[in-house]
């Protein structure tokens, strides 16, 4: 991240940018730094947040959420409701109307056919769509006219705002992607790296796991926006270097996801700092995912971490519960996040209507209780200080992305697990690879070639229906889905799937909250399939010279980048 190379990049981008009128492009270059480098610009082929963030400034949904969690129209003219006739009274359909005059960055018209195609693209069973939960219970998507799309459901949907809402479910251009359906989806490199969009910026050059160069979209619907002519979207490095680049050297205007200890951040943001920390609490939870399938390298590559082979150790709930009981979450918060974190036992920590306030059993570390559970499970302590059963040592592989806080967590958790007799093999993987979704890589979090892995994610908007729908049986990553899928731990319980269906049909808010809490508890305290650790605030760094930034815990942090400008 040398200043010389940054300036050379700026010159090249400005040369590529078209001439603009007053307002658009008047503030030169915006420099963004994501230490987890984007590896693809198609969110339907990756559930990694860094990829979704990058694509969000190029391709857009019909509607998205603001920092208050309120749904607001983007490509849609308004938000359909029962009151305005956009949602049918029987809750079986929703009709969206596009804003008139919308154009793709190549100058062609945006039509309802593009919306219909996007739904077909994601719902193709051979495509392994990473955002399939947004299309839960969709029966049909059809173009009523060039600007009108009707989505019909298989059953009444009190919350019909799954498809094409939030940065997780944007609209793709049919012309660009129509030959990329099904199994061909990951082979369309040009389209996946350089999507034609409707957002404020368009891709000039994309280098996976490195840098994205963008310029203002000349066909963006507001002729006076964006204020920046170009964007240098740099990926890679680490959170500490990203923070220094904003707060100390001033090379960058925005640094995403500053997953750093509070002492480190405090030391960088004192008097004379060139930027400030921005933070907001949404639904972001750092957790452990327990692999219910066998990741052993002794299995054929197409059978590792699949339903064909249960995990020989973690299939026993008592072992999973013991691992959770051994963890001191309060210390993890103190070490890793300070005021930007809270210990939690919930996968859904917010909004309050959906968070189980009684699910607090994991908040107190219980080493003795964990040992007792392992004894009951037949894992007996050996002379080597570790447990054994049927001649097999209790050894677990534990992976996460490369990051100082996560490595601190790994070290602490390994020590706590050693206290209860578990031998833990640690591994950290470059975040750009880990969250990349490349079906050919053995190191993605979706492929999950480990017993335990740690990461964080959240849900867009303030209703967790789509988020909880990720853990139905059909959404487990596997070879048939190009190793895409949202059910990372391969949990499968028909009773859970029934609750997901019931939530989709329930309009009463109190009942919805009750169902969400029940599903949360099934995944956490009832099965310990997911072991929540820390409810994290979304924390990033922004230069003092930037105006208009408004951090958003319910959608992309770059949700309103068209409104950003340089202070004069």
What does the secondary structure layout of this molecule look like, with pairings?
Blueprint: H1 3-16, E1 29-34, H2 49-55, E2 63-65, E3 71-73, E4 93-97, H3 112-123, E5 138-145, E6 148-153, H4 174-177, H5 189-193, E7 201-207, E8 211-216, E9 230-235, H6 239-247, E10 254-255, H7 262-268, E11 275-290, H8 317-325, H9 329-336, E12 341-343, H10 367-376, E13 380-381, E14 387-389, E15 392-393, E16 395-401, H11 404-419, E17 423-429, H12 431-434, E18 452-457, H13 465-468, H14 494-505, H15 509-523, E19 530-543, E20 546-547, E21 565-566
Parallel strand pairs: 1-9, 1-10, 16-17, 16-18
Antiparallel strand pairs: 2-3, 4-6, 5-6, 7-8, 8-9, 10-19, 11-18, 11-19, 12-19, 13-14, 14-15, 20-21
pLDDT < 50 stretches? 1-12, 14-21
CATH H-level superfamily of the largest domain:
Periplasmic binding protein-like II
Shape: globular
Task: Determine the structural class based on helices, strands and strand pairing.
Answer: alpha+beta
The overall average pLDDT, rounded, is 93
Number of domains: 2
Helix content: 10-25%
* CATH architecture descriptor name of the largest domain: 3-Layer(aba) Sandwich
* SS strand fraction: 15-25%
Can you identify the CATH class of the largest domain? Alpha Beta
Q: The biggest beta sheet, please?
A: 11 strands, mixed
């Amino acid at each position: 991240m040398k200043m010389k190379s940054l300036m050379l990049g700026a010159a090249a981008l400005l040369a590529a940018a078209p001439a603009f009128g007053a307002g658009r492009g008047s503030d030169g270059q915006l420099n963004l730094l994501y230490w987890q480098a984007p590896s693809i610009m198609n969110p339907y082929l990756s559930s990694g947040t860094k990829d979704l963030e990058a694509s969000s400034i190029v391709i857009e949904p019909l509607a998205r959420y603001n920092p208050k969690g309120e749904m607001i129209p983007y490509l849609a003219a308004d938000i359909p409701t029962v009151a305005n006739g956009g949602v049918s009274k029987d809750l079986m359909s929703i009709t969206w109307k596009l804003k008139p005059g919308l154009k793709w960055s190549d100058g062609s018209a945006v039509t309802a056919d593009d919306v219909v195609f996007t739904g077909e693209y994601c719902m193709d069973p051979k495509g392994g769509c990473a955002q399939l939960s947004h299309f839960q219970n969709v029966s049909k998507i059809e173009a009523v006219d060039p600007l009108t799309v009707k989505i019909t459901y298989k059953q009444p949907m009190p919350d019909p705002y799954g498809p094409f809402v939030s940065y997780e479910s944007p609209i793709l251009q049919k012309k660009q992607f129509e030959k990329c359906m099904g199994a061909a989806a990951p082979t369309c490199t040009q389209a996946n790296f350089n999507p034609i969009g409707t957002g404020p910026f368009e891709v000039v050059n994309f280098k996976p796991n490195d840098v994205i160069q963008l310029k203002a979209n000349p066909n963006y619907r507001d002729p006076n926006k964006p204020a920046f002519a170009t964007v240098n979207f740099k990926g890679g490095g680490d959170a500490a270097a990203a923070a220094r680049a904003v707060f100390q050297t001033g090379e960058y205007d925005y640094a995403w996801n500053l997953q750093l200890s509070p002492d480190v951040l405090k030391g960088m943001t004192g008097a004379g700092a060139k930027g400030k920390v921005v933070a907001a609490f949404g639904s972001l939870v750092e957790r452990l995912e327990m692999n219910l399938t066998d990741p052993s390298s002794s299995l054929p590559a197409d059978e590792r971490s699949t339903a064909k082979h249960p995990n020989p150790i973690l299939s026993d709930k008592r072992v999973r519960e013991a691992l959770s009981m051994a963890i001191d979450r309060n210390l993890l918060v103190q070490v890793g996040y300070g005021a930007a974190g809270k210990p939690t036992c919930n996968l859904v920590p917010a909004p309050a209507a959906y968070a189980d306030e009684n699910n607090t059993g994991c908040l107190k570390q219980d080493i003795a209780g964990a040992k007792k559970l392992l004894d009951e499970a037949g894992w007996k302590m050996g002379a080597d200080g570790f447990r054994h059963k049927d001649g097999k040592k209790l050894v677990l592989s534990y992976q996460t992305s490369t990051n100082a806080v996560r490595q601190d967590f790994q070290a602490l958790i390994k020590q706590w697990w050693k206290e209860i007799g578990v031998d833990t093999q640690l591994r950290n993987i470059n975040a750009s690879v880990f969250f990349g979704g490349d079906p050919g890589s053995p190191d993605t979090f979706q492929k999950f070639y480990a017993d335990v892995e740690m990461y964080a994610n959240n849900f867009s908007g303030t209703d967790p229906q789509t988020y909880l729908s990720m853990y139905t049986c059909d959404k487990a990553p596997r070879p048939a889905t190009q190793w895409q899928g949202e059910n990372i731990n391969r949990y499968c319980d028909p009773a859970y799937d029934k609750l997901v269906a019931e939530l989709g049909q329930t309009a009463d808010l109190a009942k919805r909250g009750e169902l969400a809490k029940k599903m949360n508890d099934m995944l956490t305290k009832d099965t310990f399939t997911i072991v929540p650790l820390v409810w994290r605030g979304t924390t990033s760094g922004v230069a003092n010279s930037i105006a208009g930034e408004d951090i958003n815990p319910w959608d992309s942090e770059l949700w309103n980048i068209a409104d950003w400008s340089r202070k004069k």
